């Protein structure tokens, strides 16, 4: 039995969903990506740990994804396993804390907090990502960020297959950074978020205000990976891009949004090279005009 067959057998025995020769473009918000030998969807931490053990024993390559909302995948075939955490989405509220698996959607968490009049997740309402991805990049918006509310987390060290627990201070949070982004071997399994008691009506109003702002300012009607570039010290990348008259600039099917210059959208049939080519053009134009080297916020994955 080949390596993919061994992994598929484990999935069958453990109850993990798996799909061979699966196109990854259907799992990314950009709608771009190649085909993987196998896509697997562990249902809980135990299945995930067992899955990673098999992957390591077989010497298989793997990529770890949530719901693919902040990534750009290349279109080459991925000879290995694409591991998705989207089925690991269980959560529970105890007092002012939310205990949640890594695949729990941020909007689901924000809605649960609202139902229990817990404040702290209003900023996350409408962010199309999972808890794991949000902690990985210390996601934030509208005055809030994950580092404000993460109490602790648990992860699997893919190198040693050990389960490790991290307290708030061990996450090494910075702007769009965390220990998970710095250590590619750490795979977040679940986290505890510490919120505060609040007024339900005020929480709901803040969430609806944030959602209205997203709809007004962001090109949600097109596939994208969200804001492409990081905010720098003393500047907003979107403002620099707009000042360079790059709104509407396109390469193939990829275009700088007319609505928000910080977004690159897939107008139809955009390829990996279209998007990376447009990113390179934007960086060059901004640097030539300002001397500033803007950096990508989205994760570009090539193999």
What would CATH call the architecture of the largest domain?
2-Layer Sandwich
* CATH class descriptor of the largest domain: Alpha Beta
What distance separates the N and C termini?
25 Å
> What is the succession of H and E elements?
HEEHEEEEEHEHEEEEHEEHEHEEEHE
CA radius of gyration: 20 Å
Could you explain the architecture of this structure?
This protein has 303 residues and is an alpha+beta fold. It folds into three domains: 3-84, Uridine Diphospho-n-acetylenolpyruvylglucosamine Reductase, domain 2; 91-202, Uridine Diphospho-n-acetylenolpyruvylglucosamine Reductase, domain 3 (2-Layer Sandwich), CATH 3.30.465; 219-301, UDP-N-acetylenolpyruvoylglucosamine reductase, C-terminal domain (Uridine Diphospho-n-acetylenolpyruvylglucosamine Reductase, domain 1, Alpha-Beta Complex). It has eight helices and 19 strands. The chain has helices at 3-14, 45-58, 106-115, 131-136, 179-182, 200-217, 237-243, 272-290; strands at 17-23, 35-41, 61-65, 71-73, 78-84, 91-94, 97-101, 118-119, 140-141, 144-145, 150-157, 162-167, 186-194, 196-197, 224-227, 250-251, 254-256, 263-266, 299-301. It has a five-stranded antiparallel β-sheet with strand order 6-7-13-11-12. A hairpin with a 4-residue loop joins strand 11 (150-157) and strand 12. Helix 1 (3-14) runs antiparallel to helix 2. The mean pLDDT is 96.
């Amino acid at each position: 039995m080949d390596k993919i067959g061994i992994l598929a057998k484990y999935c069958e025995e453990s109850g993990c969903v798996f799909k061979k020769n699966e196109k990854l473009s259907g799992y990314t918000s950009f709608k771009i990506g190649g085909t993987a030998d196998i896509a697997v969807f562990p249902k809980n931490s135990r299945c995930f740990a067992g899955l990673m053990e098999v992957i390591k024993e077989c010497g298989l390559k793997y990529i770890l994804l949530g719901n693919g909302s902040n990534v750009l995948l290349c279109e080459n075939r991925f000879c290995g396993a694409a591991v998705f955490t989207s089925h690991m989405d269980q959560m529970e509220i105890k007092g002012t804390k939310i205990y949640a698996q890594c695949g729990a959607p941020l909007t689901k968490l924000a809605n649960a907090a609202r139902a229990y009049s817990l404040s702290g997740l209003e900023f996350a309402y409408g962010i199309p990502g999972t808890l794991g991805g949000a902690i990985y990049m210390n996601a934030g918006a509208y005055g809030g960020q994950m580092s404000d509310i993460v109490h602790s987390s648990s992860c699997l060290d893919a190198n040693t297959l050990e389960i490790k627990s991290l307290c708030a201070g061990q996450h090494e949070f910075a702007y769009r950074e965390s220990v998970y982004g710095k250590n590619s071997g750490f795979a977040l399994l679940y986290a505890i978020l510490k919120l505060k008691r609040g007024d339900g009506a005020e929480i709901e109003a803040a969430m609806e205000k944030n959602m209205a702002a997203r709809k007004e300012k962001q090109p949600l009607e097109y596939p994208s990976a969200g804001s492409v570039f990081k905010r720098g010290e003393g500047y907003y990348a979107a403002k620099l891009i707009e000042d360079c008259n790059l709104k509407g600039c396109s390469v193939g099917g990829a275009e700088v949004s007319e609505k928000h210059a910080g977004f690159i959208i897939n107008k139809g049939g955009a390829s990996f090279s279209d998007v990376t080519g447009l990113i390179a053009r934007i960086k060059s134009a901004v640097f030539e005009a300002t001397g500033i080297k803007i950096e990508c916020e989205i994760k570009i994955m090539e193999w």
